[in-house]
Amino acid sequence: MEKVVEKNAVKLNGYLTAVVYLVLFLLTLYIFGSYAKHPEGEKLLAFIVLVVVIAIYPLGFIIIQPNESKVLILFGKYIGTVKNSGFWWVNPLTLKKKVSLRIHNFNSDVIKVNDLDGNPIEIAAVIVWRVVDSARAIFDVQNYEQFVAIQSETAIRALATEYSYDSGDDTKMSLRTSQNEISERLKTHIQQRLDIAGVEILEARISHLAYAPEIAQAMLRRQQAQAVVAARQKIVEGAVGMVDMALKTLSEQHIVQLDEDKKATMVNNLMVALVSEVQAQPVINTGTLYQ
């Protein structure tokens, strides 16, 4: 496939060429009047040529809005692109194709796909893009806007299969917990697919992420169970640390001497008080620990 390289088209100031057009128009009227008075073959030929010129001449005038470009094609050959905003005159025989250089937003549809663990999830993303090479956008793909939409959804689907929806390991990336990293990866994936169309990806972010409805309730219960287990683990670790600190403090400050049985009893009582989900009720012992 022939690779198209964007280049600047030859253009002239539109206001100056408008003055030239006005001069040609007045010259045509003058020759027509002169020919009417003194018919001569040379004047008739000049009149016909000027009529053709002033008929075609206005086709070369173009107005370029900010963040807009026009691709010029002469008899099937690309001759350049006009990107500078303003009033210009170009070859009037060229075909002019308008390309918007403004920033676009693409909101993908919600896609249903399996994540790395095989769980069905729903995912969608917002892609911010713009055309940076008008020639490639026109000549290298059939419809660059449709191309952006299809390739973006393909990249989203491919990325979703590379990661788990949620990972219990904090060191592993997941779709839910690593939003910034996933967004950068998504941007890179889409950019690689759209380089051929002369499109630049400015931002790519996940806008919707959820488990598929058929497993949403089950996965919610699993997340709740994992949260409960993690919380209880933290509570137990804290309680063990507090019991250890209490025993060391009592021993170092010689507040009370505890044998192994007394230590076991104290550990049991402290663990129950610290770990229990309900408020512990104190029991006052009026005797000894061995009664």
Automatic annotation (TrEMBL):
Keywords: Membrane, Transmembrane, Transmembrane helix. Residues 59-223 form the Band domain. SUPFAM superfamilies: Band 7/SPFH domain (SSF117892). It holds the Pfam family Band_7. The chain crosses the membrane at residues 12-32, 44-64. CDD domains: SPFH_like_u2. It is found in: Membrane. InterPro entries: Band_7, Band_7/SPFH_dom_sf. Its main location: membrane. It is a single-pass membrane protein. The keyword Transmembrane helix applies. GO terms for cellular component: membrane. This is Band 7 domain-containing protein. It comes from Melioribacter roseus (strain DSM 23840 / JCM 17771 / VKM B-2668 / P3M-2).
